[in-house]
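Person: At home tonight, work slowly through the protein below, taking as long as you need, and write a paragraph about the fold.
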Amino acid sequence: MKHSRQICAGLLVALLLSGCQTATPRFRDASQLVLQNLDNKTLQTMFPVEYEDLQKTFVLGEIELARGEIGSADGYYALVPVKADILEKLYLAELKKREEAQRLLLEQKQQAERELEAQRIALEKAKAAEQARLLELQKQAEAERAEAKRKAERAKQEKEIQLVSRHTVKRGETLPQIAAQQEVYGDASLWPLIYKANRDQISNPAVLWPGQVLKIPRNVDRGDLLDARKFSSEKALR
């Protein structure tokens, strides 16, 4: 570009010295205006070769003009707008290409941010679910420890009480009174268990005879206990 300016300066000097410019080319002013309008640093940086070629075309026109070759000079001047139009289209296309690249880059960044946010939310949900699971396991463990403690205490009490498998009826005793004794069941509502185990010698659960030796069933399950309590609630004994 510096070289082109030097050529132009030299030509102007030559023109002044010669003083022989007899006519003005038709397209010189228009081509000069085009060059002024293309004084764009970004465009020059993007397309240095094309921009220099455009300036050289104008310089060649100036050379021909200095020689007095008006037609030839006008040919070069006429090429300047054409090349400028091509250069401007290249420039606009490049700007559009770069804008599209920026847009795609922004979309990729936004997509990456959305994916990171989705991963963060999923991680928080997984963390919350894991905390809830651990809390549930903790509650279960506490419940199991409490149940184990109750069983241990019950076993300790049973060991201390020395449970019996037989009971000799005393005067005035009833089945609920016998069932309520700690060494028997410790629960008056379980008297039907004794009654059913001794049907061979008890015809009426409300009537017992002193000296009767009653079996106390021990091998009972939860269903037996529920049935006994239901039976005792339907047939109350004193």
The CA atoms of residues 39 and 51 lie 10 Å apart. The two ends are 124 Å apart (CA to CA). The chain has two domains: 2-101, 162-234. Residues 1-22 have pLDDT under 50 and may be disordered.
